[in-house]
Amino acid sequence: MLSEVVDTVIGADTHRDTNQLEIAHPSGAVIAASSFGNHSAGHAEVLAWLFEHAPGPRLVMPIEGTRSYGVGLARAAKAAGVRVIEAEQPSRKARRGKGKSDPIDAHLAVLFALGLDADKLPTPRADGTERPCASCCARGMS
Description:
Layout: E1 8-14, E2 18-24, E3 30-37, H1 40-53, E4 59-64, H2 71-79, E5 83-87, H3 92-95, H4 102-114, H5 134-138
Parallel strand pairs: 1-4, 4-5
Antiparallel strand pairs: 1-2, 2-3
Helix pairs in contact: 1-2
């Protein structure tokens, strides 16, 4: 499981103007959460905030929307050495009883990543398109 090989999970819910992020322990416990602008300066702020609060060097960032609003954040994080994976949008079933908000979606991105097999993580390409992997594609989540 992913939780066995990382120190920190950073969930990101991306939108046209803002990105909501959550830093969490591999247990899923929240360390910090914040919102940033979805532009180059905002991405730099995300990285500074992340490296200030992350409790270890082994980082993974599940980002919702790496092929759309999250492409800039994904590229900035990858350039800074952060492992980026595509987070699937939460299903209605996963959201049931939790509501719908940007902080909740960032937390659901963390939980999505923690449920993945560490050897079969979906990795976005530099251009924002996702490469297929056995784990996601086998479950029909490509």
